[in-house]
Specification:
Number of strands: 6
Structural class: alpha+beta
Helix content: 25-40%
Order of helices and strands: EEHHEEEHEHH
C-alpha cells in the first residue's frame, strides 16, 4: 500500500521482504558519508530490530517499481513539548535520482507522518561537510540548530560507564 503517490514516484512503508534493500541503502549511505568501517548492519539485524522489535520504521520511495529512496526514522520524546516527535536517522536517494525532487517528497512524507501522529517536530543530524544537504534542508525551511552539540558514548566507553555501578 502506497502512502504517497506523485506521478510515477510512490512511497510506502517497508516490509520484511525489503530487509535486503534496506541493508543496501544503509551501506550506500555509509559509503557516501565515508563511514563504511562503522557499518556493521546485517539483514538479520534489520529484521530483528525494525520488524520484530519495532525499534524504527522505514519508508521506501519507488520510481516505476524500483526502490530509489530510503528513509529510516523513529519516535523520540521532547520533555519541553510533552510529546513524542520523529527523529530522521537516515535519508538517502540513489545518485542518478538526486536533484529531481524525490528527497523533498520523502521529507514531506515524513512531515505528514509526524503531523498525523501528533508530533510537533521532525529532527535530524547532518554531517558538517555535507553542504549540499545542508543547503537543501535550509531550502525547505529547516532550522540549523548551531547552539547544540552532539555527544555520544559507544562501545568500550559505554560499557565502562555502565560498569561504574
Amino acid at each position: 500500500m502506497f502512502i504517497v503517490e506523485k506521478e510515477d514516484f510512490k512511497i510506502r512503508f517497508a516490509e520484511k521482504k525489503d530487509a535486503k534493500s534496506i541493508v543496501k541503502f544503509i551501506e550506500l549511505l555509509a559509503s557516501y558519508e565515508h563511514l563504511e568501517s562503522q557499518c556493521i548492519v546485517t539483514e538479520k539485524l534489520i529484521l530483528t530490530s525494525i520488524f520484530d522489535h519495532k525499534e524504527a520504521e522505514v519508508i521506501l520511495g519507488e520510481l516505476d517499481g524500483e526502490i530509489i529512496a530510503f528513509s529510516l526514522f523513529y519516535h523520540n520524546y521532547s520533555t519541553f513539548l510533552g510529546r513524542s516527535n520523529i527523529f530522521l536517522e537516515d535519508l538517502f536517494v540513489l545518485k542518478d535520482h538526486r536533484h529531481k525532487g524525490y528527497g523533498k517528497i520523502m521529507l514531506a512524507t515524513l512531515a505528514k507522518i509526524a503531523c498525523d501522529r501528533g508530533a510537533k517536530r521532525l529532527d535530524w543530524w547532518c554531517l558538517d561537510w555535507n553542504t549540499a544537504s545542508i543547503d537543501f534542508y535550509k531550502s525547505i525551511g529547516a532550522d540549523h540548530l548551531k547552539e547544540w552539540t552532539i555527544f555520544r558514548l559507544q562501545h568500550e566507553k559505554l560499557e565502562a560507564l555502565a560498569n561504574t555501578i
